[in-house]
Structures are given as structure tokens and as C-alpha cells.
Amino acid sequence: MLTNTTNLKGFTIRARDGELGTVDQFYFDDETWAIRYLTVETGGWLGGREVLISPFSVVHTDWQARRLDVALTKKQVENSPGIDTHQPVSRRHEAEFFGYYGYPYYWDGPYMWGPAFYPAGLVAEPALSEAAMADSIRRQSQVSHLRSTEGVRGYSIQALEGEIGHVAGFLVDDDSWAIRYIEVATRNWWPGKKVLVSPAWVERVSWAESRVSTGLSREAIRNAPEYFEPVRITREYEDRLFLHYGRAPYWLHEAGHRSALALSGD
Questions:
Q1: How high is the pLDDT of residue 21?
Q2: Of 75-84, 94-103, 134-143, which range is least confident?
Q3: 217 near 163, Cβ under 8 Å?
Q4: DSSP letters of 177-207?
Q5: Nearest CA to 1 among 70, 53, 60?
Q6: CA–CA separation, 145 vs 123, rounded Å?
Q7: What pLDDT does 258 receive?
Q8: Is the Cβ–Cβ distance between 52 and 37 less than 8 Å?
Q9: What are phi and psi of 19, to 5 degrees?
Q10: Residue ranges in 79-180 assigned as alpha helix (H)
Q11: Mean pLDDT over residues 66-94, rounded?
Q12: Which residues lie below 8 Å from residue 162, measured CB to CB, with a gap of 6+?
């Protein structure tokens, strides 16, 4: 299901033995545009400390109750490696986090989640020993590609001919936790209209200039099917969207990868 990240903000995170807190922000990988972490406001039980939760741990989404159930205990979260969410998250910090929980490294495999297309269903491995974890961390690049969705909101959107609007939000797939669309507010040019653009059509992001550049024309964006929030995104709407832009839909690309994987026997 596709949902705007603003709709997920405030969701309760429930562990196996009680509530952890509420969803605050989202960190995405600016290479694959996948949500890698949710930041959780824990309230009083951890002294107000914010913690990171990986989609690897999410086992169920209850939309009516506005709750995410995770396969964690409160003690696990309490003892997890501390990460200052107000500072850039390094690959070293990520390696420590994944080593602690026994998750596979998402950057160490051919698919969006390393060994798999989706984070759900991957069995956590036993936590690495301190020596093994230290060795693994030493071998990792120190470069991380994580960005906060809140930090990117408001960035200008550039068409081929120049500015066309700004980033108003993100639509995420709650199975793959991939950002499928960037919500673009074009009120700079046409008051009130919002349209969607796939991250696959982004050619460059200038973090210094707060700008997202696409390979699309102003005319193409202006005439795109309008996006109405909070109307649910249907496959019919997505078909119209990709047909309008003349691009192949993401589900065909992913189906091709899955077919190749099945033929290879992996």
C-alpha cells in the first residue's frame, strides 16, 4: 500500500512487550530512495531519548489503530547502540546498529534490502561478536547516504527548463519501504495543483542548493495527472501516470529482477 509519510508520522510503535513510542521522522537512502530508518520518540520510559527502528523489524501495520508492530523487545531497544539523530548517521553507526540486531547489511547485496527485495520475512542472524563487528566496521565505507524526509521537504524541483515547484512530501510503499513518488507542489506556477514524480526520474540532487533536478519538461509535469491527498493511490492511477510520462512502471522492472532471480535458482 502507498501512503504519504506524513500519514505515518505519529504512529505508535508497539514492541512485543509494550509500546516504544511514536514515529517522528524518516531517513532514506539517497541512492535507492528506500526508507532505512524510522526515528521514534520514546517519551518518558527512555528519558526522552530518540531511537532508530529499521523496517526489518516491522511485522504488521494496523492502519485503523495507527500502529506499527515490531519484532523487538523494549530491553533490546533500550540497549541498542546510541545514535545522535541530530547528526549525520555514518556507515560505522549503521554497521554497529545492524550488527547489534543481527540484520543483514542492506548495502551488501544486489537488491534494495541486500539479500532481498523486501525487509519483511528476513530472519535476523545471531548478533556478531565484538571482534567480528569491529572487523566488519573497519571494512565498511565511512560514507552514508541517509537523508531526512523532513530535511528534503521544501527543496525546489527543477524541470529541464527551470524551476517548477517544490517537494511537498513522499509516498512510500509499506511492503518494500521504497519511496515510490515525490509529491510536487506546483503552486509556483499553477495555484493549488500537486503532481507526483518518481525518484527514478531524478537526475541530480544538490544538497548544498536544496534542489532536486529531474529529466522532465515543465509541460510534462504541468499536464501530469493531479494528485489529491488523501485519496488512495490506485494501480489505475499509477498506470495513467507512467503512461503520461512515457516511462516503464517500477513493478515491471522489479518483476523482471524477480524472474531472473528465480531462473538463477538463488
A1: 95
A2: 134-143
A3: no
A4: -BEEEEEEE-TTTSTT-EEEE-GGGEEEEET
A5: 60
A6: 25
A7: 56
A8: yes
A9: -85, 140
A10: 91-101, 130-139, 149-152
A11: 87
A12: 218
- pTM here is 0.88
Residue labelled with grid coordinates 548544498 = 208
C-alpha to C-alpha distances, 170 to 56, 163, 185, nearest whole angstrom: 20, 19, 11
User: ∠ CA(69), CA(70), CA(74), 5° rounding?
Assistant: 110
C-alpha distances out from residue 96 to 52, 64, 90, 99, 176, Å:
12, 34, 10, 5, 23
d(CA 155, CA 212): 7
Query: By C-alpha distance, which of 234, 200, 231, 232 is closest to 215?
Result: 200
Alpha-carbon span 252 to 67, nearest angstrom = 31
Residue with grid cell 504519504, as numbered in its chain: 4
Q: How confident is the model at residue 96 (pLDDT cuts 50, 70, 90)?
A: confident
Q: For 119, which DSSP code?
A: S
Prior bond of 230 cis (ω within 30°): yes
Q: Where are the alpha helices (DSSP H) in 34-148?
A: 74-78, 91-101, 130-139
- Residues 93 and 86: their CA atoms lie apart, in Å, by 13
Residue 241: the pLDDT is 96
Do the bridges between strand 156-159 and strand 146-148 make them parallel or antiparallel, or are there none, so unpaired?
Answer: unpaired
| Alpha-carbon separation of residue 215 from 30, 219, 245, 262 (angstroms) | 17, 12, 11, 33
Q: Determine contact, residues 139/114, Cβ cutoff 8 Å.
A: no
Distance (Å, whole) CA 126 – CA 96:
14
